[in-house]
């Protein structure tokens, strides 16, 4: 009986240590993923600022979606490339610098989502998106860009965009 109790205590101790070790490994894996994702997003923004078309689009999945600030800007990757190419060809695309970013990794470690506050030529903007693991690389699968409008200015902005929005709504 004493041997059985000792065996149960020993198994319990090993299990606790194994669970702690598993948690540490999981925390390390998530931290590594977040670091890699931040690097991809920073490199993606830098490639746009440097007008490096291939470097920019290499950070996106082939079926990526980019949603811009205009209500009509909901592009599949090929459409976004066609829209963007003239800007990159002129040597001046856009310049976004992340001021703040939050990254969240899925339980399985193959999908993550993020939000970021950006300093841009449009002043403060918000970006959010989904990245996924493609082989050993993280790639942007979905990105949404929005202009940050102070709550105190929403009425003015709504008035400015009302006519254009009614045209867009009538087409939908």
From TrEMBL:
It comes from the Bacteria. InterPro entries: NTF2-like_dom_sf, SnoaL-like. Residues 37-150 form the SnoaL-like domain. It holds the Pfam family SnoaL_3. This is SnoaL-like protein.
